[in-house]
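hey so i finally got around to running the thing on that chain from the lab meeting. sorry it took forever, my laptop kept dying and i had to restart like 3 times. anyway pasting the input first so we r on the same page abt which one it is
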Amino acid sequence: MVPASSIKTITRINSTIKDLFIYLYDLSPLELDLLFILIKNKTSMTLEELAKRVDRDKSTVFRSLQKLVGLGICTKETRTLKEGGYYHAYSSIDIESFKIETEKRVSELEDSFHRLLRKFEEDLGKAISSFYQE
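ok and heres what got predicted. didnt touch it at all, straight out
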């Protein structure tokens, strides 16, 4: 269930793009910072570079990056070192793809609200009935 404060945050007149991302993607302040760093940087960055940039432990940054990759708004690429071994480089998806993904999430949210409204009376009746049977 979405807390009322989240809906208020996203629907107020002075809402920002940050509010939208926090609401739609359930991003923490750190995840949002990492996303904006990757968008601004326009090139891939390593875990070490990102951890240093946000002054956080690598394991914390790694978990946040895994979430961003899992959401499909960042990518993780494995690169091979000449002397052997490999490392991962992270980047954000391009702005147009990000916009399309965000529009898709907004559309899914709208569909959910419409579905709930169509079943409003039936669901309210069931909720009231179960409340009085307790």
